[in-house]
Write a structure and sequence with these properties.
This protein has helices at residues 2-9, 11-36, 61-74, 92-119, 125-128, 134-143, 147-155, 158-180, 199-218, 225-254, 267-287, 290-312, 322-334. By secondary structure, the chain is mainly α. Helix 10 packs across helix 12 (290-312). The radius of gyration is 22 Å and the shape is globular.
């Protein structure tokens, strides 16, 4: 309620809080990195007993790589939602690429540093891999079992807060935009009379998410709620990535002369690579660990319901966006 309320209150306060809580999270990670370095020993990262057919480097075999993919993607999940803030940017052509590239670089550094240092100190990868609080395990090694570790672990929750707070902003804008375009019921595109924020979309998204979390919790699933939700989120994300890459490739092929304020340095080859990784991850979600599969199937059913809604009702109510009109004009010009 607090974080949905912040987003309803206004974009400025929401963004200021996002920056503040993200800096706090990064500061806590920096404390962890500095504290972990004196305790680092690579042998801790390889203390998982190999299963049959496994090895020191791949203790669970190739299947372990596929099982890890959804969790690896979680390190970077939702950075693609940054363009939803384009309307709040002074110069979106310059600001958004700068923000995305800087954000990705920060995520890459933090992801590798967290993974390697947390697994490379006692109690090592065998315990860290089974823990629901892996960073707390690392803090106990650095600062002992006392109050200091618990306080730092509590403050480290700032990382989770930074993540879901900004995701609340993203889903609110996404639901609002899709509703305004006719894909979702029109009531979800209503904005607050004073704040002009998409309050209906924010409240509806929170309610649906909370109900899903409760269903998973009370369904008696073997997997933790957080891990199940993580796999559901990755399922939706990789589908989005697949279609984004296909759209990128198609636009490059059929509209080569379209005005592009920013061009990807990796070009079409990078899009094909991202498409392949996304497709492999999508398959991995269904072929690994049974405890997560039911959550992914639930997400698939939700997506199927959305497709049925669009086929029966939504497609008859579409409102063409400015960029779609522009694309059609470009197509007519090319013809």
């Amino acid at each position: 309620m607090i974080f949905v309320g912040l987003n309803i209150w206004g974009v400025e306060i929401s963004f200021r809080f996002s920056v503040l809580i993200t800096l706090v999270a990064l500061l806590i990670l920096l404390v962890f990195y500095i504290g972990a370095l004196p305790h680092f020993d690579l042998k801790h990262a390889f203390n998982i007993l190999p299963e049959e057919g496994g090895s020191k480097w791949l203790p669970m075999g190739v299947k372990g790589v596929f099982a890890a993919l959804p969790f690896a993607i979680w390190f970077y999940l939702a950075i693609e939602q940054l363009p939803l803030a384009a309307e709040e940017s002074h110069q979106p052509q310059k600001d958004l690429p700068k923000g995305i590239i800087t954000g990705l670089f920060t995520l890459i550094v933090c992801a590798f540093a967290t993974l390697i240092l947390n697994a490379g100190i006692a109690p090592g990868a065998s315990v860290i891999g089974e823990s629901d609080e892996p960073l707390f395990e690392g803090f106990k090694t650095i600062f002992g079992e006392g109050l200091g570790s618990r306080v730092l672990a509590l403050v480290a929750v700032a990382g989770l807060i930074a993540s879901f707070h900004t995701i609340i902003y993203a889903y609110g804008r996404q639901i609002y935009s899709l509703s305004r375009a006719g894909y979702f019921p029109q009531a979800l595109s209503l904005t607050h009379s004073n704040r002009k924020t998409p309050h209906m979309a924010l409240i509806a998204g929170a309610a649906v998410g909370y109900v899903i979390a409760l269903v998973i919790h009370f369904a008696g699933s073997d997997s933790p709620v957080g891990a199940a939700l993580l796999n559901m989120a990755v399922f939706g994300a990789v589908i989005a990535y697949i279609f984004q890459m296909l759209s990128f490739i198609r636009l490059r092929k059929y509209f080569p002369r379209m005005k592009r304020p920013y061009k990807s340095p990796l070009g079409t080859a990078g899009a094909w690579f991202a498409l392949l990784v996304s497709f492999i991850t999508l398959i991995a979600l269904f072929i690994v660990d049974d405890s997560y599969r039911s959550a992914v199937l639930g997400a698939a059913i939700w997506f199927a319901a959305g497709v049925v809604w669009f086929a029966v009702i939504g497609r008859k109510r579409l409102v063409r966006a400015p960029e779609e009109s522009f694309a059609l004009q470009e197509e007519e010009t090319e013809s």
